Amino acid sequence: MKIIFLDFDGVIKTDYSSDEDKGIKGGRDWVQPELVSHLNKIIEATGANVVVSSVWRKLYSVCELREILNKAGFKGKVIGKTGNDPSGIRGREIQEWLDTCPRKSVEQFVIIDDSSDMEHLMDKLVKTYTYEGLTEKHIGLAVEMLNEGIDVD
Question: What residues are paired with 50 via a beta bridge?
Answer without folding.
Answer: 4, 78
